[in-house]
């Protein structure tokens, strides 16, 4: 008797009949936000950007990059979105390059999500006493012992507190990490900032190996002061002093994030290109087939496999007995 065959069929039928766990039906989905995405050639046919303003010493090379500052002293440049980022859950992926010829270099650049926009100033080329979130890619060490530079840090501005440039923002740091090798990196350098309202804020960096991300920080909203304004503009700015670097932006990609699951409607406030939303701004996923119907179907397959296996075994046994005579 071929019991191994019969056992294999039973195992296969058992796998087919295993119920699907509820958590397998939940996942994060994204909707690209064209209003906050910037890729080559960066400009429209009239040499303007529909969704971004830029100023200061910013230069645009349509086939390669947006250069916030060149490798020359005393430069400031910026770009800012024209419309606010109103999604409650989002992810920003930024590709950039910090490079220059000198061994001494500075100062760095910043990623902004603030109420203020397009205002040149002393904090990495943008305004001080900002309200919102600033992520600083600081390449020049002023006075911060025990910290390796370049250093990437987050600051949550309240509109009244100044950035402590003399101490590289130590007193107002929300979170940060050292990123040696970020400047003149051998691979494309990227930053990925992910935010879930009232839940978390995290930053990942790519600068050591391509397609390999290093976590810089991961903050829980319950334990940290994460207060990004409901109406915040996305911006980038850079600054050089006596020392300098090229600060290039290659691309900005922004996604609206929402959770799809059986028990979670998910969602975030919409943007102009987020389709399939209800009046409340919640993305409505398509209804899936009843899990009970699917379970019944797999159960029938299970018993069908058992009957088929038993029938085959009976035929084989009958033929074996007949062959003896």
From TrEMBL:
Pfam families: Lectin_leg-like. The lineage of its organism: Eukaryota, Fungi, Dikarya, Ascomycota, Pezizomycotina. GO terms for molecular function: D-mannose binding. One of its GO terms (cellular component) is endoplasmic reticulum membrane. The chain crosses the membrane at residues 292-316. The keyword Nucleotidyltransferase does not apply. This is L-type lectin-like domain-containing protein. It is found in: Membrane. Keywords: Membrane, Signal, Transmembrane, Transmembrane helix. It comes from Penicillium malachiteum. PANTHER family: RE50040P, VESICULAR MANNOSE-BINDING LECTIN. It is a single-pass type I membrane protein. Residues 1-22 form the signal peptide. Residues 30-257 form the L-type lectin-like domain. GO terms for biological process: endoplasmic reticulum to Golgi vesicle-mediated transport. Its main location: membrane. InterPro entries: ConA-like_dom_sf, Intracellular_Lectin-GPT, Lectin_leg. Residues 263-285 are annotated as: Disordered.
